[in-house]
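Q: Can I see a sequence and its folded structure?
A: Here is a first one.
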Amino acid sequence: VGVGKSCLLLRFSDGSFTTSFITTIGTIELDQKRIKLQIWDTAGQERFRTITTAYYRGAMGILLVYDVTDESSFNNIRNWIRNIEQHASDNVNKILVGNKADMDESKRAVPTSKGQALADEYGIKFFETSAKTNLNVEEVFFSIARDIKQRLADTDSKSEVTFMFLYVWFI
């Protein structure tokens, strides 16, 4: 069973929930501007690590998604952050996401406070989400899009960005 990255993506892209795999390109409206998101749902398993390193350089934003009911998925986040630091651009935006927050507390293996502490350690934002109940799904995507938009505006203040092509990459 995965951490729910594909379900989170599907909930955001068309408002539905399923266990099927999906990758999408979509357009959102952000601050009266059209933003194009190309979203790569990449597998976090070790066997895909060499394939996915090719995507690091093109990524403008990375969502590091773990399953709150699976401590090993959370513990693997540090390895992925090291990989990101090694291969991605220095200014890539990152958000830590604990998914499946709708699960019963008795099934939770990673407390919210532990996720927040890890995000604080790396100086990145943290959300808990549920693709099943739609908890914080839009907030995560709009937050990373806003962060990337702001970073681009800060680096090129002479031109106003009216359309962006963003990679939001799942780990």
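Q: Show me another, different protein.
A: A second, unrelated one:
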Amino acid sequence: MERINKATLFVNLLFFGTKKEEIYKNRLRLGVAVLFLKYNFVFR
């Protein structure tokens, strides 16, 4: 659960930090966040 909470905080920080930026950067960082989550859940 702790790891899931940290991942959720990480994604929330990305979303809040990129609200004022361009859509392209949002999608790019979202892709990075998805890769980050996949890495965490596959290689625990």
